[in-house]
Specification:
The complex is a heterodimer. By secondary structure, chain A is α+β, with helices and mostly antiparallel strands. Chain A is built from 27 helices and 17 strands. The radius of gyration of chain A is 22 Å and the shape is globular. In chain A, 63% of the residues are buried. Chain B has one domain: Ubiquitin-like (UB roll). Classes of the chains: A alpha+beta, B alpha+beta. Chains A and B meet through helix 8, helix 9, helix 20 and helix 22 of A and strand 3, strand 4 and strand 5 of B.
Chain lengths: 623, 95
């Protein structure tokens, strides 16, 4: 019997049959999977055919908060959505913050499962025990920010927390995200899955409290965490003031800020145009998530160009890359405006920017012509056209919009002529804001992450910030990166993605104590008796489960790779000059990584490993 | 004598004389420790920013020699060569 932290309940909404059911979550599931991503993945493996069409009726969506969400644990308002991704065909998992995650818990649920497909546009209304499927006809076509405003009025419920899709999700763009407040379940096209179900929004209002099993133990663990946060040399002193864009300067200094579709990384420096000094000139307020004393999200007000001036948005570091460096754009106001428009139309800023950068290179190489662009010059650095293209993508506007709407992989398939060699994606997911050629474990995580090129599944802070936990690493070295990547992926999955905790705490405050602190917090909240080793094992379990789903979806070792450019073209300047990841080096790293995971040479989990992780039933699924 | 490049960012620029990048001349066969001593003499605030009370380099500081974290190699004993690049930056995070 779960005594706290968890609500112990799952809400299942079938949009085809309109059945709404409530189920118990077992203590065994809680122990093995902790929550959040762990819960979602367990159910995805149990219920969804890996060969299912991601945009078909058989795909499902699992929205799951962690046992710490809604408690007084700091920075725990996180929620995962797990589904089969239309962008990659692999497991699609995206996390969001804000206030929506805790509201699900306050309404009395650890997880919401959405299945089937509505005949008409609809939304799910949840107010504690009352759950309804309602018509969203009036909202279909509306942008995400207006949808939230409108729906609060329709429901006469100003305190409702709403997650919704915009036109991009309705039009099934594989880069569509789900927006709640102004935060996002950003990547892997999860918004298109909602769109395919004719589901415009989920509105939640909860009035319950999350119980705590052992107040004293929980409080002790919470204080440990707060104290680690206070002792952090950067969390309050720097990060809380600048947010994620504070690393524009350091990533440029390391020579791995991707530039012009990875052609000129290290050669062009974006510190002056997009770095901390410039950012400060646009910042006007903070926008913290529920229960966060840090408040990293920084609202910035665009100036200058009349197309951008007055736009208020909170672009993250990744967006400075996707609408900055990788597109060769050095105009910070266009980055702010692009971020705002992406949120409005419901597009992932990262995939969208990288796809535009790819189109820019296609244009420069003559593989896209003025006939394709409607007479417009699609060169690197053209920020006005970059901003215009976002809306064209969301609405699949005939021409470039339609061509680009499903990301770099699909665009490369349409163009052909070897263009896939510089289509910057892995398994279909566009690369994040660190050139992997100059940070090999960070790169190996991109290649092996179960969601595709996803920095958040195993961020190598050892290479990016020189943090020596578990020890110091040479970012250019190949040896030892398999072991490190496994460590990063497992610790992050357990503590951040399952428990749930904001990933920035792991990097900046609790890296050395994360497993123990997560165990103490979850035990205090729930009455479970997890050891730090159990917590780590959950992370490993998550990565094995996801691997099995992906293998059964058709992925093999050959998909754990990089775009040709990363494998063959050295970085041309800066502190990482000369670096690349040869095929031989990739194979060395993969061999070591699979060995560390006790997977076969082909990257398939062994029976022995699955037994050790107490999920031997999954071995049958591999046959 | 040899010449090495010292580069930094953010608030560390203030500590290193407001310079993002500077070239330092130092005796042949010098180590990184020698370089730090030389810089500490030149820039008085450097010592307290980068050393702990026990005279170790703070773990939170990124300290790279030719792009690589010095603590993954030979640390402060690293021998310097003409044209080497040293990058130091204060604690950062995000991403």
């Amino acid at each position: 019997m779960l005594k706290g932290g968890y609500t112990g309940k799952i809400l299942r909404v079938n949009l085809t049959t309109e059945e709404i059911t409530k189920e118990e979550i077992s203590e065994e599931t809680a122990k093995k999977f902790i929550g959040g991503t762990g819960f979602g993945l367990k159910y995805l493996l149990d219920e969804v055919d890996p060969k299912a069409n991601p945009l078909g009726e058989d795909n499902k969506m699992y929205f799951a908060s962690g046992p710490l969400s809604g408690t007084k644990a700091p920075c725990a308002s996180r929620i995962a959505v797990v589904t089969k991704s239309p962008l990659t065909g692999a497991v699609g998992m995206a996390l969001s913050g804000g206030y929506f995650p805790v509201e699900l818990k306050f309404a009395g649920y650890d997880m919401l499962i959405v299945e089937g497909k509505s005949e008409e546009p609809s939304y799910i209304y949840i107010k504690d025990d009352i759950v309804r499927i309602k018509s969203a006809k009036k909202m279909w076509g509306m942008n995400t920010l207006d949808t939230q405003r409108y729906l609060k009025h329709e429901l006469d419920e100003q305190n409702a927390r709403i997650a919704c899709i915009g036109p991009a999700g309705e039009n099934l763009s594989k880069m569509a995200c789900i927006i709640n407040e102004k935060r996002a379940f950003g990547r892997k096209g999860v918004g298109a899955v909602m769109g395919s179900k004719n589901l415009k929004a989920i509105s939640i209002r909860g009035t319950n409290e999350v119980k705590i099993a052992h107040e004293e133990a929980f409080e002790k663990a919470r204080k440990e965490m707060l104290s680690a946060m206070k002792d952090s040399p950067v969390l309050y002193s720097g990060f809380s003031k600048l947010g994620t864009p504070m690393i524009v300067d350091s990533i440029n200094a390391l020579g791995i800020f991707p530039s012009e579709n990875y052609k000129t990384t290290g050669v062009k420096d974006y510190t002056k145009s997009l770095g901390a000094e410039k950012t400060k000139s646009r910042q006007i307020a903070k926008e913290p998530c529920y229960g966060c004393p840090v408040g990293c999200a920084q609202l910035k007000l665009a100036q200058g160009n009349t197309k951008y001036v007055g736009k208020l948005s909170d672009p993250e570091y990744e967006t400075y890359y996707s609408f900055g460096g990788v597109t060769g754009v050095e105009n910070i106001d266009s980055v702010i405006a692009a971020d705002y428009i992406c949120d409005e139309v419901g597009l992932d800023t990262m995939s969208t920017g990288v796809t535009i950068a790819f189109a820019m290179e296609l244009y420069e190489k003559g593989l896209l012509t003025k006939e394709d662009t409607g007479g417009r010059e699609l060169n690197f650095g053209n920020h006005e056209l970059m901003v215009d293209l976002i809306t064209e993508i969301a609405y699949r506007k005939e021409g470039l919009g339609e061509m680009m709407a499903d990301g770099t992989k699909v665009l490369a398939e349409k163009i052909g002529q070897g263009s896939e060699k510089f289509a910057m994606n892995i398994k279909g997911l566009e690369l994040p804001a660190y050139d992997p050629r100059g940070a090999k474990a960070h790169g190996l995580n991109y290649a092996t992450s179960y969601t595709g090129a996803d920095h958040n599944r195993g961020y190598a802070f050892q290479e990016i910030f020189s943090i020596p936990v578990p020890k110091a690493y040479d970012r250019f070295a190949i040896k030892g990166k398999g072991e490190l990547t496994k460590w990063n992926q497992d610790v992050r999955a357990a503590t951040c993605d399952c428990a749930t905790m904001c990933a920035f705490l792991l990097d900046m405050a609790v890296a050395g104590i994360a497993l123990e602190n997560t165990a103490n917090l979850v035990n205090g909240a729930s009455g479970l008796d997890l050891t730090p080793e159990d917590v780590k094992k959950t992370g490993e379990r998550v990565n094995n489960l996801a691997r099995i789903f992906n293998i059964n979806s058709g992925f093999t070792r050959s998909d754990d790779t990089f775009p040709e450019r990363i494998l063959t073209e050295p970085i041309k300047g800066g502190e990482s000059e000369g670096q690349y990841i040869s095929r031989e080096d990739l194979n060395l790293m993969l061999d070591e990584y699979y060995k560390e995971r006790n997977w076969s040479e082909d990257g398939v989990p062994t029976k022995e490993k699955l037994e050790e992780l107490e999920v031997e039933y999954l071995y049958e699924k591999l046959k | 004598m040899i010449k090495v490049k010292v580069k930094t960012i953010l608030d560390f620029k203030i500590i290193l004389g407001g310079k993002e990048e500077q070239y330092i001349e130092i005796k042949k066969d010098s180590t990184l420790e020698d370089l730090l001593n030389l810089l500490s003499d030149k820039y008085k605030d450097l010592t307290k920013e980068i050393y702990t009370d026990n005279n170790d380099i703070k773990e939170s500081i990124a300290f790279l020699h030719n792009g690589v974290n010095i603590f993954a190699k030979e640390g402060l004993n690293t021998k310097l060569k003409d044209g080497d690049s040293i990058l130091m930056f204060p604690p950062v995070g995000g991403g």
